[in-house]
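Example 9 (inverse folding). The structure is encoded as follows.
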C-alpha cells in the first residue's frame, strides 16, 4: 500500500510536469475540462481525508495495546484484570466501523463516471494532455478502490474498470486489476476482519495472549506467556510504524492534489486579469 501510494504521488507529479512542458495556456483549456478536473480533485481530497481518518483510528488502537502491555509487566491479579480490559477495548475499537469510509463508494462511483476518454479537436497538445489525464484517472480510481476496500473490509468498494483496447496499456492494466482484485476477494471470502497484514498479525497475537491473561497464569505457562507477551509487543510496534509511514504517504498525496488544484485556480485568476486588465470599467475609456 505504501508503494502504491508512492506510485500515485509520482504519477500526479508527472502530470503536473507534463502540463508545464506542453505549454498549453489555461485560456485554451475547454471549460468542461477545468470543471471536471476541479470536481475530481475535490473528491480525491475527500477520499484522502477518509483514508487519513481510518489510519488515525487504527493508530489510536495502539494506545490500548501499550496500556495492556504495561500492566502485564506486573504479574498480579489486579494488573491482569486491567490488562484484560485493555485488550477488550482494543478489540472493540478495531472492530468498530469508521463512518467516514461509508462515503468512499459514492465517491468512487462518481469518479468512474468521469472516466470517459474525451475527444479533442484541433489541438494536438490537448489530445496528449487528455490521454495522459485519462491514464492518471484510471490509476487513481484503481488504487483508491483498493485502499477503500482494504480499510472498510468490503469488496463492494473494489472496481473492475474497462479500459478501451485502443489504449496501449489496456491489457497490462486488465491483468493487474484481475490479479489484485481477485486476491482481495479471496482474502475476504475467508472471513478475515482485515486486509492489513500487520493488523492481522497483531490480532493473532492478542488472541494467543488473551486466554492466559483472562484465566490467570499457572507456573507452567510462564514461558509461553513471556513469549506471547514479547510477540505482541513486537508486532504492535511494527503495526504502529507502518501506519505512520502510510499516513505520511496519504498526506503527501493530499498535498500534491491540493497544490495542483491551487495552481490551476491561480492560473485562471491570472488569465482573467490579463483578459480584462480594467475590470469594472464597462468599456469606458481611461483618461489620463
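The amino acid assigned to each position is listed next.
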Amino acid at each position: 500500500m505504501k508503494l502504491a501510494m508512492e506510485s500515485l504521488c509520482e504519477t500526479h507529479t508527472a502530470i503536473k510536469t507534463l502540463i508545464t512542458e506542453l505549454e498549453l495556456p489555461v485560456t485554451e483549456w475547454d471549460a468542461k475540462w477545468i470543471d471536471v478536473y476541479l470536481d475530481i480533485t475535490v473528491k480525491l481530497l475527500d477520499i484522502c481525508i477518509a483514508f487519513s481518518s481510518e489510519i488515525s483510528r487504527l493508530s489510536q488502537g495502539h494506545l490500548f495495546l501499550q496500556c495492556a502491555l504495561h500492566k502485564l509487566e506486573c504479574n498480579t491479579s489486579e494488573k491482569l484484570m486491567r490488562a484484560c480490559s485493555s485488550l477488550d477495548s482494543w478489540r472493540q475499537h478495531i472492530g468498530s466501523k469508521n463512518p467516514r469510509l461509508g462515503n468512499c463508494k459514492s465517491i468512487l462511483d462518481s469518479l468512474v463516471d468521469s472516466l470517459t476518454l474525451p475527444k479533442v479537436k484541433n489541438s494536438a497538445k490537448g489530445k496528449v494532455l487528455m490521454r495522459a489525464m485519462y491514464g492518471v484517472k484510471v490509476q487513481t480510481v484503481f488504487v483508491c478502490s483498493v485502499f477503500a476496500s482494504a480499510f472498510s473490509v468490503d469488496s463492494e468498494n473494489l472496481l473492475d474498470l474497462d479500459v478501451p483496447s485502443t489504449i496501449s496499456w489496456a491489457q497490462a492494466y486488465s491483468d493487474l486489476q484481475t490479479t489484485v482484485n481477485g486476491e482481495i476477494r479471496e482474502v475476504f471470502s475467508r472471513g478475515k476482519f482485515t486486509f492489513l497484514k500487520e493488523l492481522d498479525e497483531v490480532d493473532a497475537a492478542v488472541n494467543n495472549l488473551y486466554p492466559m491473561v483472562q484465566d490467570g497464569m499457572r507456573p507452567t505457562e510462564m514461558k509461553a506467556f513471556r513469549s506471547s507477551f514479547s510477540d505482541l509487543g513486537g508486532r504492535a510496534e511494527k503495526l504502529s510504524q507502518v501506519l505512520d509511514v502510510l499516513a505520511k504517504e496519504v498526506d503527501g498525496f493530499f498535498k500534491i492534489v491540493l497544490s495542483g488544484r491551487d495552481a490551476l485556480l491561480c492560473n485562471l485568476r491570472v488569465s482573467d486579469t490579463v483578459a480584462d486588465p480594467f475590470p469594472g470599467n464597462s468599456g469606458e475609456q481611461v483618461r489620463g
